[in-house]
Design goal:
This protein is an alpha/beta fold and 594 residues long. It folds into two domains: 345 residues, no CATH class; 138 residues, Transcription Regulator spoIIAA, CATH 3.30.750.24. The chain is 58% helix and 8% strand. It contains 26 helices and twelve strands. A six-stranded mixed sheet has the order 11-10-8-6-5-12. Helix 3 packs across helix 18, helix 8 runs antiparallel to helix 19 and helix 8 runs antiparallel to helix 22. It starts with 6 loop residues before the first helix and ends with a strand.
Length: 594
């Protein structure tokens, strides 16, 4: 019977905008406008700083900040998410494109978008669930620490080249004598202001007992909150004004960002051929240089985006594949406007959520403000102090380091600390792209270990008549890694004289209860077959209880005539009675767990 095709349902699934656009009204538009403007005040200074983190000129951060906002409106499902440059992807972009030019980063964005589309269309979103929370936490914490350390030169006014965590600290040590007082003082002031303003969001005016908030108190609370979320823009604008005034008096004590190319980016396909130094790089040479980054960058973007979407889903079902498709479209389209790789930002999404966002349409206003900034304000960005941008990055990533998870894992699951610290240490000292692979590998090893050691409940059951048998209850499934373990465990338990004591020197019996057993592969069946053969040689018997139809067929095929099975407790008692030389009907059972 063919399932009827519902075009309207397919359209709503492919273009979520068709679900909410019909109900869009003036009240929703005002909420989205407020959220869009608020997010833009956070996005613009961050994007300029993240471009520097990625090793690109500042304008590329702005180029990366508007296309994703527009595209996500059509394909996205989570109103809170803002697509743009992030600290994590900026670090990865630098990892794969440093010492090249912007064409490499733009092509990485474009190709990464197609990888994400392929994952989404192939419905592979479930693979995200195979990357555990400890691995993601270890990865993001290590990346945050690397990002923060990479900004030390901006904070202290130093000039050096370093790529790895260890190289950074070596260079800081070598250049310690070159620390500039002006940059350092400004950095300290900016960090203190940013962290202090961040705490403002916790400050609220409460009404007296039995009273309600007045209009003035509501306005005051809103102003305090708005000041807190606009802290990045406030600090950058304030420092820019100070730098401009100091420059007029020729007393500038800190480094400036310098000239930023103004105007909108050119629109078109990324360059599939570029010139670097005196060498012409073809498409093949560019992709060869990017290497594993073509897979790592988009996959990390997927993991981060799905995690953010889940965090803001508010209990609703999330279509992870649609979110991946939306992210892929954002990166593909962004590649046409000279963008570096983009994904959702948890910090900006949190700002959007607290701003009262209602639909993804908030991205219209965020994107429009970024475009106006590119068109009219970029000449003034010349005077943005580098220490201010470095402070913005440091204060943003500081809270990405997930220390509380260590205590939670210590209490609930100490074994999960292994992939957490394994990922963290590997990312710091080997590299973030290798580190997350090592973390996933540790997770796989732990998963295989548990599959190779299935839980076996072993009991000695003594009937009132004196007849005893051993009951083995496996849970889950039996697979090839566990074949020898299960065989050895049952053999050892059956030879335990405390369990297998049968009166009158009759043959002991092992009952394998398959009530919780759902699957068994060929290798594990061969292990059970060998166990039956071993038991037969020493005059012991195995009875299978509660076998599901599919398992019963497998056992009968592989084990053959030696397979004994009972579908009910009554049949089991009859079989045991028969094996025990036709002893009288058993009395009620007495359970004695091992």
């Amino acid at each position: 019977m063919m399932i009827p095709i519902n075009p309207e349902r397919i359209l709503k699934k492919a273009l979520p905008i068709t679900s909410w656009a019909r109900e869009y009204d003036a009240g929703t538009a005002v909420s989205d406008l407020v959220a869009g403007i608020t997010v833009a005040l956070t996005l613009i200074p961050q994007s300029i700083a993240y471009a520097s983190l990625a090793g690109l000129e500042p304008q590329y951060g702005l180029y990366s900040s508007f296309a994703g906002s527009f595209v996500y409106i059509l394909f996205g499902t989570t109103p809170e998410i803002n697509i743009g440059p992030t600290a994590l992807l900026s670090l990865l972009t630098f990892t794969y494109t440093h010492q090249t030019n912007s064409d490499f980063a733009v092509l990485l964005c474009f190709l990464g978008g197609f990888i994400q589309l392929a994952v989404g269309f192939a419905r592979l979103g479930f693979l995200v669930d195979f990357v555990s929370v400890p691995v993601v936490s270890g990865f993001t914490s290590a990346a945050a620490l690397i990002i923060g350390c990479s900004q030390i030169k901006g904070l202290l006014g130093l000039s050096y080249k370093a790529e790895t965590f260890i190289d950074i600290w070596k260079q800081v040590y070598k250049n310690a004598s070159n620390i500039k007082t002006g940059d350092t003082v400004l950095s300290v002031i900016c960090c203190i202001i940013l962290l202090s303003m961040r705490q403002l969001k916790e400050v609220k005016i409460h009404p007296k007992k039995g009273e309600v908030l007045t209009k003035k108190q509501n306005i005051a609370n809103t102003a305090i909150w708005f000041t807190s979320v606009g802290r990045n823009a406030a600090v950058v604008i304030g420092c820019t004004i100070v730098a401009y005034i100091m420059n007029l008096h020729e007393t500038l004590p800190f480094a400036l960002t310098g000239k930023i190319v103004s105007g909108l980016p050119s629109v078109g396909l990324p360059n599939f051929k570029t010139i670097l130094g005196n060498e012409t790089y073809t498409f093949t040479m560019i992709t060869s240089h990017l290497g594993s980054g073509i897979l790592v960058v988009p996959l990390i973007g997927i993991i981060a985006n799905v995690a953010i979407a889940k965090a803001f889903s508010k209990g609703k079902m999330l279509d992870a594949n649609q979110e991946i498709v939306a992210l892929g479209m954002c990166n593909v389209v962004s590649g046409f406007v000279q963008s570096m790789p983009v994904n959702g930002s948890f910090a900006r999404s949190a700002v959007s959520n607290s701003s009262g966002v209602r639909t993804p349409a908030a991205g219209i206003y965020t994107g429009a403000i970024v475009l106006m900034t590119l068109g009219f304000l970029t000449p003034y960005f010349y005077f943005i102090p580098k220490p201010a941008l470095a402070s913005v990055i440091v204060c943003a990533v500081l809270f990405m380091i997930d220390l509380p998870i260590i205590r939670r894992l210590w209490i609930s699951s100490k074994l999960d600390l292994v992939p957490l610290f394994g990922t963290f240490v590997s990312c710091l000292f080997i590299g973030v792209e290798i580190g997350i692979l090592i973390g996933i590998a540790i997770d796989i090893v732990i998963l295989l270990y548990y599959n190779s050691r299935p839980k076996l409940r072993i009991e000695r059951i003594t009937l009132a008549s004196g007849i005893s048998y051993m009951l083995v209850t496996p849970t889950g499934g039996l697979f090839f890694p566990s074949a020898n373990y299960v065989r050895e465990k049952i053999s050892k338990a059956s030879s335990d004289t405390q369990i297998a004591v049968i009166p009158d020197n009759t043959s002991p019996i092992v009952v394998i209860d398959c009530i919780h057993l759902h699957r068994a592969d060929w290798t594990s069946l061969q292990g059970l077959k060998s166990l039956l053969s071993d038991f037969k040689k020493i005059s012991k018997s195995i009875i299978f209880l509660h076998c599901k139809k599919s398992l019963k067929q497998k056992f009968e095929t592989e084990v053959g005539e030696e397979f004994m099975q009972c579908s009910s407790h009554e049949q089991l008692m009859a079989s045991i009675h028969s094996l025990q030389n036709n002893m009288p009907d058993p009395l009620p059972m007495i359970y004695t767990p091992k």
